[in-house]
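Entry:
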Amino acid sequence: MRMAQLCAVVSLIVVASSAGADVATLEPAARQIQSFSETLTDSMKQARQLGIMGRYNKLKPAVEQTFDLPMMTQLAVGPSWSSIPASDQKALVQAFERMTIANYARNFDDYNGERFVVDPKVVARGDDRLVQSRLEQTRDSAVPFIYRMRQSGNSWKVIDVYLNGSVSELATRRSDFSTTIASSGSAGLIRQINALSDKLMAGG
């Protein structure tokens, strides 16, 4: 995985950690990120053997467990969500999930000793929790992330990610999605997201 690839897709993906923290002692929100990272790192280490479809299938359950994909889709679409037919809402969630998994499968396609580090100190923001982590590629190179998490049922799930602590994934997505909905409606947005996923998955 190259730094340029990471920066290109960071608005769509969430990177987690496996830096030796004691999972049992972590707060639940941080533990969720820690657990996801173990699957992500394992997929990276097996990237060539698995191929892109194998990575997609391996990561799918972990993505569904870690991200609140329906909430992320609704927040990314914005205020127009309530006016979208239920059938299109369902299709948008499915497309958003597929795009998210495809991004991981395509862009985390090798392993060169990267280190994912999660901060065990979780910050409360109202009902949400902020989990801080960083991706270390070399001793002097690290990319910080903040993950906004919200309780869904009995689990803490990611609803947004901030690159360098300030750039919101959902704000970036909302700007893009709102333009498409205004010009092509929800059906057009569904086509756009699925086309992006097809491109990511093409070529093995």
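Confidence is low (pLDDT under 50) at residues 2-21.
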